[in-house]
C-alpha cells in the first residue's frame, strides 16, 4: 500500500435539484493531509461523500492516483479509499474485532477463513486506537468515543492509500483527539478530513480548503489561510494565531463570535 494523489477537478455536488457545492478544484499530494473546513451546512460532508466515491458528482471528476474514482469497480474503490462518516455507527450485532475485520473485506476471498495475517492487521489497528483488549466485546457495550475509534480502526485495517474522515475528532476526549492526530501524522497515507477544530488543523494538516456558501473560497497552508480576516468573514469569529511559549508551535485562539443570523439561506 502506498499513498496516492487525489485530484478534484470542477466537482459539483447536488442533493435533489439543489446545488450544494460547485466548482471545486483541489489537489492533494500523495501522503499529505488536507482539511476541509467551513461553517455548519457549508457542504463539507456532501463533498466528502463524493471524494470517498459514495456519491457521484453532478459534474467534474475525482482522480485517485490518476484513476477516476467513480469509474472504479466497488472492490477496487474499497481498496483505494476508506471512509468514516460523521454519524456512522458500527453494527451493534458485531464484536469489535468483527466490525474492524469488515475493513479487510475488499482484500479477502469471501469464502476463505480468516488467516493469521488478517487477524494481525485487525489487532494492530485495534491497538493503534487503544482498543487492543476489546476484540471480543460487543460493539453495543462501547461508549460513543470507543465506537468511533472502532470505525477508525476499520478504516486503518482497510489499508487504503487514501483515508476520508468526516470530523474524526468528534466524540473523542482531549487525549484521544491529540493521539488521533499524532496517529494520522505518522501514517503514510493521503488524508482528507472535514474538521471543525481549526487549532488542530493548524498543526496537523499540510493544507486546508475553506468551503463557504458551496464554494472553496481559500486553500493553501493552514498558517497562511487561517488568518483573522478569513476567520471573521467565513466563521464569524475573532481569532489570532499565537506561538506557544514552550513548544514554539502555532495555536489558534478564538476570541469572540459575531451574533448569529437566524435566517436560513435557501439557494
Ligand atoms: N439529503 C439532503 N437533501 C437536501 N439538502 C441536504 C441534504 N443533506 C444535506 N443537505 C444540505 O446541504 C448543505 C450542506 O450540508 P453538509 O452536511 O454537506 O454540510 P457540512 O458542511 O458537512 O455541515 P456540518 O458542519 O454541520 O456537518 C446544508 O445546507 C444541508 O441542509
Automatic annotation (TrEMBL):
<keyword id="KW-1278">Translocase</keyword>
<dbReference type="InterPro" id="IPR003439">
    <property type="entry name" value="ABC_transporter-like_ATP-bd"/>
</dbReference>
<dbReference type="Pfam" id="PF00005">
    <property type="entry name" value="ABC_tran"/>
</dbReference>
<keyword id="KW-0813">Transport</keyword>
<dbReference type="GO" id="GO:0005524">
    <property type="term" value="F:ATP binding"/>
</dbReference>
<keyword id="KW-0067">ATP-binding</keyword>
<keyword id="KW-0547">Nucleotide-binding</keyword>
<feature type="region of interest" description="Disordered">
    <location>
        <begin position="248"/>
        <end position="267"/>
    </location>
</feature>
<feature type="domain" description="ABC transporter">
    <location>
        <begin position="6"/>
        <end position="238"/>
    </location>
</feature>
<dbReference type="InterPro" id="IPR027417">
    <property type="entry name" value="P-loop_NTPase"/>
</dbReference>
<protein>
    <submittedName>
        <fullName>ABC transporter ATP-binding protein</fullName>
    </submittedName>
</protein>
<dbReference type="InterPro" id="IPR003593">
    <property type="entry name" value="AAA+_ATPase"/>
</dbReference>
Amino acid at each position: 500500500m502506498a499513498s496516492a494523489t487525489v485530484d478534484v477537478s470542477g466537482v459539483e455536488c447536488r442533493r435533489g435539484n439543489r446545488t450544494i457545492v460547485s466548482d471545486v478544484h483541489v489537489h492533494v499530494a500523495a501522503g499529505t493531509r488536507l482539511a476541509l473546513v467551513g461553517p455548519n451546512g457549508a457542504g463539507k460532508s456532501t463533498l466528502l461523500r463524493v471524494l470517498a466515491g459514495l456519491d457521484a458528482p453532478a459534474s467534474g471528476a475525482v482522480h485517485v492516483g490518476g484513476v477516476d474514482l467513480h469509474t472504479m469497480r466497488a472492490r477496487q474503490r474499497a481498496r483505494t479509499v476508506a471512509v468514516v462518516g460523521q454519524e456512522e455507527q458500527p453494527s451493534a450485532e458485531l464484536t469489535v474485532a468483527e466490525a474492524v475485520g469488515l475493513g479487510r473485506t475488499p482484500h479477502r476471498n469471501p469464502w476463505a477463513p480468516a488467516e493469521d495475517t488478517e487477524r494481525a492487521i485487525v489487532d494492530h489497528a485495534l491497538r493503534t486506537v487503544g482498543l487492543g483488549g476489546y476484540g471480543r466485546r460487543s460493539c453495543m457495550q462501547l461508549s460513543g468515543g470507543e465506537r468511533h475509534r472502532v470505525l477508525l480502526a476499520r478504516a486503518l485495517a482497510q489499508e487504503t492509500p487514501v483515508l476520508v474522515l468526516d470530523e474524526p475528532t468528534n466524540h473523542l476526549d482531549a487525549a484521544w483527539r491529540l493521539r488521533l492526530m499524532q496517529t494520522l501524522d505518522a501514517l503514510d497515507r493521503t488524508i482528507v478530513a472535514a474538521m471543525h477544530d481549526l487549532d488542530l488543523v493548524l498543526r496537523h494538516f499540510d493544507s486546508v480548503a475553506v468551503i463557504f456558501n458551496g464554494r472553496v473560497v481559500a486553500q493553501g497552508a493552514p498558517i497562511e489561510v487561517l488568518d483573522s480576516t478569513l476567520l471573521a468573514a467565513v466563521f464569524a469569529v475573532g481569532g489570532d494565531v499565537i506561538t506557544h511559549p514552550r513548544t514554539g508551535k502555532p495555536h489558534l485562539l478564538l476570541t469572540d463570535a459575531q451574533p448569529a443570523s437566524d435566517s436560513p439561506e435557501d439557494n
